[in-house]
Amino acid sequence: MLEVKDLTFKVNENGIERSIVKNISFHVDDGEMLVITGPNGGGKSTLAKVLMGIEAADGGQIMLNGEDITSYDINHRANAGIGFAFQQPPRFKGMTVDRLLSLAAGHELKECECCELLSRVGLCAQEYIRREVDATLSGGEMKRLEIATVLAKPHKLCIFDEPEAGIDLWSFSMLIREFEKIHDKKKESLILISHQERIIRMADRIMVIEDGTIGAIGVREEILPKLMDKGDSCSCMNRADI
Fold first, then answer.
1. What pLDDT digit, counting tens, does each position of 146-162 carry?
2. Would the N or C end of the chain have less CB density within 10 A of its end CB?
3. CATH classification of the domain holding 176
4. Quick check: 53 and 77 in contact, CB under 8 A?
C-alpha cells in the first residue's frame, strides 16, 4: 500500500519560488489501479517523479507498505519495490535492448525471456533484441521498450506516465491487455497517468490533478461521469478511439 501525506514540491524560477505539487495526500491500496488525469501542466508528471525519487520532495511523507521511503533516492525506491516508466524514456547509446532488459530485471535474462517481454509490448522480438537503445528508435518504440523494462520484474507499485503516448492502435490494445493482466492478479498496485478514456475506464479510482492540487478523487463510478459531463471542454480526457 502506498500512502502519501502532504507531499509538496517547489521550483525556483528566476528567484521566484513556485509550488508544482501542493500538499497532496492520497493512498493506493494493494492491487488497486489508480488513474491520475487532469489538464496539461497540472503537476501529474512531477508528482510521479517525486514518488519515484527522481525529484526530491520539499515536504510531506511517502510510505510504501508501512516503510517510510521519503528520504530514499531513486535506486533505493526501486529496490523497495517501485517500478517507473517515463513519459519520455531516456536513450542509451551503446546499450542493446537485451542488456537493458536484463538490467531492469536485476539478472541476466535468457534470449527467450527477452523475446517474451518484447512481444508483450508489441515489438517483433528478433528485430529489436540486439538493437541499440539510441536515436535510431522512434518515440513509440522507445515507449514500448520502457514499459517492457517495468514488466521485466515484479514490483509492489508500478507507475506509468502516459503509457499511450506515441504508440499505434494495435500496440495500445496489447498494453491495455497487459495492464488488465497485472490488475487481475492483484499482486501489484498501479498508478497510470493518462488522458485516454479507455485507460481511465479501467481504474478502480480516479484522481484529478489541477494546478498542483487534487481537484477530485474517488471511485470510477463517481468521478468518470463528472469528467464525461464536461464534454468537449474537458482538456483532461481524450476520447479518441486510440
1. 999 999 999 999 999 99
2. N
3. 3.40.50.300
4. yes
Asked if residue 86 belongs to a domain, the reply is: yes
| Domain of residue 194, residue span | 2-90+154-233
The maximal CA–CA distance of the chain, rounded, in angstroms, is 53
Q: How many Å apart are CA 125 and CA 159, to the nearest integer?
A: 24
The rounded distance, in Å, linking the Cα atoms of 46 and 52 is: 10
d(CA 131, CA 112) in angstroms, rounded, equals 16
Answer whether residue 149 is part of any domain: no
CB atoms within 10 A of CB 141: 21
Looking at residue 231, what DSSP letter applies? Answer: G
**Is residue 34 one of the residues assigned to a domain?**
yes
Among candidates 181, 190, 163, 155, which has minimal Cα distance to 88? Answer: 163
What is the 8-class DSSP label of residue 110?
P
Report the C-alpha gap between 242 and 72 in whole angstroms. Answer: 37
pLDDT, tens digit (0-9, with 9 covering 90-100), for 71-130: 999 999 999 999 999 988 989 989 999 999 999 999 999 999 999 999 999 898 889 999
- Number of domains comprising the chain: 1
**DSSP per-residue codes, 197-209:** HHHHTT-SEEEEE
Answer whether residue 112 is part of any domain.
no
